[in-house]
Structures are given as C-alpha cells and as structure tokens.
Amino acid sequence: MFFSETSDGKTLNGKSCPHPPLMFVVDGEHRLSVRALLEDRRPAPRSAIAIAPYWNVNQAGEVCLGSMVTPRSAGLAGLGEWIEGFFQSEFTHSGNVKITSHPEGHLGLWRDLAGRKRSRRSG
Predict the structure, then answer these.
(1) β-pairing, 49-51 with 90-91?
(2) CB burial of residue 81 (10 Å; 0-12, 13-18, 19+)
(3) What is the pTM of this model?
(4) What is the three-class DSSP state of 10?
(5) DSSP state, residue 41
(6) pLDDT over 80 at 72, yes or no
C-alpha cells in the first residue's frame, strides 16, 4: 500500500499487509466500490459483507479515485485493471467517518497489520 506524503499512513508506505477477502464493483458511470467479505469465497445474493477498511473509501464502499488511473472499460473484462489501479494509487485520507472498529481508527488498524502474513480473526 502506498500513502501520500500528507497522509497519516505515510509511515506505512510500502509495507506488506494482509487484506480481507474483497468484492469490487464498477458501475457504468466509472465509479468503483469495494466491500470486505466475511468469508473467503464468491459471495451469494444473501452473503454478509462489511465495510472495507481502506483510506479513500466511505461507509457506502465508494472509492474516492484521487490519483488512481482508471481503465476505459467499466465492464467485467476491465475489473482486474480497476483492482490493480486501486492498490497502485496513493491512499490519502480516511474521511470524516469511522469505518473500522479498531480503537485507533484506520492508522491503528493498518499499523497493527503491517508485516503480518494474514490477519487474525476475532471471536
């Protein structure tokens, strides 16, 4: 993950972190959304999903594209390019809403995850 020089996350720049299973959605208006899956398998219509705890993502899962290079295609064929663009862009802000239950918010969550091979599940 890469963070802008003005981001609180700049101390985590380039560190490896485990990520939850993710679901990405690209709509016809060239907007990207991301959600975290509670199980590491293809979601079904009634599968439980969670807010993905990333900078530049709001409570609805919508991604602020910022420095992200967006593919021309919003179709299924371009989905891999959208995902690659998401992770190669600079994460700049956590927004003004709390979308992680970590007591130190985004920064504390990713600081705790930095260097781990996989995340620990609670409960």
Answers:
(1) unpaired
(2) middle
(3) 0.79
(4) helix
(5) S
(6) yes
